[in-house]
Every structure is written in C-alpha cells, then in structure tokens.
Write a structure and sequence with these properties.
The chain has 2 domains: about 35-105, 2,3-Dihydroxybiphenyl 1,2-Dioxygenase, domain 1; about 105-220, Signal recognition particle alu RNA binding heterodimer, srp9/1 (2-Layer Sandwich), CATH 3.30.720.110. Helices cover about 20% and strands about 20% of the residues. The chain is built from 4 helices and 8 strands, in the order αβαββββαβββα. The protein has helices spanning about 1-5, 45-55, 130-140, 195-205; strands at about 35-40, 60-65, 75-85, 90-95, 120-125, 145-150, 170-175, 180-185. It binds fe (ii) ion (FE2).
Length: about 220
C-alpha cells in the first residue's frame, strides 16, 4: 500500500471502507469500468449499417425526436441505443440533423490522427488470441480497412512491437472516422498496481512461450 501511495497512485486494497485521505479530503469512491460511449453521428443509417450489420450490435431502443424546438440540444435528434452485452446500451448513437451538417462534407479523417480535441479511439475486448484472430479475419472478410495493426503492444513479449499495454490490438474506423480498437489480453495489475505476475506467466504460456524467458514488462511512471 505504501509503495502505491508513494507513487501518488491509490490502488486501495479491498475492504478498505473510508474514502478519506490523511489530510481529511475525500478520495473518489470506486468506479467499476467504462460502460458506454455516446457518439454524435452525421448519418444514422450508415452508422447502424456499420455497428449492427458489421460489428453485430443489437438496437435496443429508438428515440426519434425530429422537431428541433423540442430537443434538448437544439439539433434534430434521432437516437439509437445499441448494445453488444446484456446491458441496455454500450453505445448511444445520436444523429446530428442534416441542417447542421455542411453539404459535401469530405470524408472524416481517422480520429487517431486528426488534430482536433476529443476522441482518439475506444476499444472492445475479446476473450483471447483465438477470438482476436477470428475478429481480424472476419473484419477482413467484410472489407473493413485497418488503420493500425493487428499488432501486440509489448516491450518484452517475443511478438511485441515495443509499445506498452501487453494487449493485441487492431484498429479501424466507423463511418464518422471514430477509431475503434478490438483487443485481448490487456495487462492485469496486482493490488499495488504492478504487473500481475501470475497473469503474465499464464498469458506468455498461452501464447506458446516460456514465462521464465520473457521478462515482466516495465510500467512507465
Ligand atoms: Fe487502445
């Protein structure tokens, strides 16, 4: 615990009840995980074709509010809550009405490389390498263009590209240029925020290598 605190990182051990630090200020309660993302899209039908027909999402709920005077934000609003889990939505697609989209708008640039503030990419994780490879082949069969990868982010794994994270990854874009990553085997941490050694050994073994011959990846802090 001290080790973690000294780095200014609070990996609070399980069952620690008080969210108060020594100075009396409040520490944040626990957040479980990122649950959904909401995207403003310029062509809802094109987005649905991509997320539902290609990526396999289900449309859970539709909201059509096409009177700008009645919408929360002023722009014409067609919303689709879509999901790839048993939760109501994982992505919320909100269409920006045609009156707000300039005519002949050029194709959007990949969000990973464009220099505007905002989204860089978001990621979905799959169970393991077999499922990851299956996704890569499937996306290729659908004509999806990869903007990076497939690759393995690791400075020590025999197949690694030198970058951090330990996960396999492939990146591609939705119709609005938002970059999406599909990944597997992202690094697990122990309670002190260090690489989980058991997880690492298991992962190296699953990839067909000897854990004794593959150093733990460093975490840059
Ligand atoms: Fe990522």
């Amino acid at each position: 615990m001290e080790k973690a605190k000294n780095r200014g990182v609070f990996f609070v051990k399980k069952k620690k009840k008080a969210h108060v630090c020594k100075g009396g200020g409040l520490l944040p309660p626990k957040l479980n995980r990122l649950q959904h993302i909401a995207l403003k899209v310029r062509d809802l039908d094109a987005s649905l074709q991509f997320y539902v027909d290609v990526l396999g999402f289900s449309v859970i709920e539709n909201i059509d509010q096409t009177d700008p005077a009645k919408t929360t934000y002023g722009y014409t609003r067609r919303v689709r809550f879509i999901s790839c889990t048993n939760e109501h939505h994982v992505i919320n697609l909100t269409e920006i009405g045609p009156e707000f989209v300039p005519p002949n708008l050029p194709p959007p640039e990949n969000s990973r490389v464009r220099t505007e503030y905002g989204l860089h990419h978001f990621a979905f994780i799959v169970d393991g390498k077999a499922e990851f490879d299956e996704w890569v082949e499937y996306l290729k069969s659908k004509g999806v263009e990869f903007v990076r990868g497939p690759l393995l982010h690791s400075p020590t794994h025999p197949e690694g590209d030198g970058s951090p994270g330990e996960n396999r990854a492939v990146y591609f874009c939705d119709p609005d240029g938002n970059a999406i990553e599909i990944c597997c085997d992202i690094m697990h941490l122990d309670e002190y925020g260090e690489v989980d050694r058991e997880w690492h050994a298991d992962r190296i073994r699953r990839d067909g290598y000897n854990p004794d011959e593959v150093p733990l990846p460093p975490i840059n802090r």
